[in-house]
Amino acid sequence: MSHTCKAALVRCMDFRLDPELTDYVRAQNLLHDIDVISIAGAAKNIVDDPQGFVMTQIGLSVKLHEITEVHLMHHSDCGAYGGSRMFASLEEEKAMHIEQMQKAKEVISTSYPSLTVLMFFAVIGENDRITCVEPV
Ligand SMILES: [Zn+2]
């Protein structure tokens, strides 16, 4: 008996991402079609340890569920990167997260060339809720 899904989502564990992140997954028509890998800093673990926990999880997702996509989701004010106070502006913060996700994408693509890697950045507003999620 096999069961497959389309994608794996690498997201931060931060509670402030929900329920809006789940709403976003639903809007992408991926609810019940995506493995969720939740860890502080999301793709940070891939950059810091290319043979580590998250890459192992992605490998299992490929092997067990035959995924074809990996979605990397980073967010503003991420504690794993020291939070927004470490950056002069949201643009600077976003640029650093995009750079991190691009490095992670290279690691994933090297190990799994057939996977499509998509990157997203969520902005957390002053009310501790996601105000927007955008592809990058
Ligand atoms: Zn975070």
From TrEMBL:
Task: Give the top-rank taxon of the lineage listed in the UniProt record for this protein.
Answer: Bacteria
| Gene3D superfamilies attached to this UniProt entry | Carbonic anhydrase (3.40.1050.10)
UniProt GO MF annotations: carbonate dehydratase activity; zinc ion binding
Q: Where would you find the membrane-spanning parts of this chain?
A: none
Matches recorded under InterPro entries: Carbonic_anhydrase_sf, Pro_CA_2
Q: What is this protein called?
A: Carbonic anhydrase
